[in-house]
Design a protein that fits this description.
This protein is α/β, with parallel strands linked by helices and 183 residues long. The protein contains five helices and ten strands; from the N terminus they run ααβββββαβββαβαβ. The protein has a single domain, classed as Rossmann fold (3-Layer(aba) Sandwich), CATH 3.40.50. The chain has an eight-stranded mixed sheet with strand order 3-4-2-5-6-7-8-10, with helices on both faces. It has a two-stranded antiparallel ribbon with strand order 1-9. α1 runs antiparallel to α2. The longest helix has 18 residues. The radius of gyration is 16 Å and the shape is globular.
């Protein structure tokens, strides 16, 4: 049996998610179905400091700030296990309610507050992700970019280091762009 590398696991996870949607009667996955699969798979390639969790059984929280663009797309990942932790999706997270978030998706509806959100998460162990244009350049950790008729991502290593989260080099290999230096 051939061993599947971690890079291929991300692509395979997204492909399997698309196949599952197709089996449910949805022919082509939507943009946010694909982005939901990316969010789930990103959780596999980050390491958070121990103090980011209340204890060893604490869930890994995927939080959505602003108007939720995912609809039911994230429901398939809620309560699934990632790195021995249960993933929990929290929607409608406000700026003052970031405690316990490990991944924060910043919806386009929050573009006007982007600077405040990034300032509030600056030194917190939170992986910030958004599809707002220029997100990684603005200080977010992962910017989702739709180009060439597919979803790609950019990683800001300086922001990840400031948040004290470690990014797997395997994830960096498939990123469209990286900002900063890998240490």
């Amino acid at each position: 049996m051939t061993k599947i590398g971690p890079l291929r696991r991300i692509a395979l996870g997204i492909l399997l998610g698309a196949c599952a949607l197709s089996a449910l009667g949805q022919e082509t996955p939507t943009e946010y179905d694909v982005k939901a699969a990316y969010l789930f798979n990103f959780a596999k390639f980050f390491e958070w400091p121990a103090e980011a969790f209340a204890d060893r059984q604490a869930p890994l929280a995927l939080c959505i700030a602003g108007r939720d663009p995912f609809g039911a797309a994230l429901a398939a990942y809620d309560r699934r296990t990632v790195q021995t932790r249960e993933l929990r999706v929290r929607r409608g997270v406000a700026l003052g309610d970031l405690s316990g978030c490990h991944i924060l998706f910043v919806a386009e509806s929050e573009e006007r507050q982007l600077r405040r959100i990034l300032q509030a998460t600056l030194d917190l162990p939170i992986v910030t992700v958004s599809d707002i244009e220029g997100f990684a350049d603005s200080g977010g950790i992962i910017g989702l970019v739709t180009g060439e008729k597919r979803v790609q991502f950019e990683v800001n290593l300086v922001s990840a280091q400031q948040a004290r989260v470690k990014v797997s080099s395997q994830l960096l290999r498939i990123a469209r762009n990286t900002r900063g230096r890998f240490q």
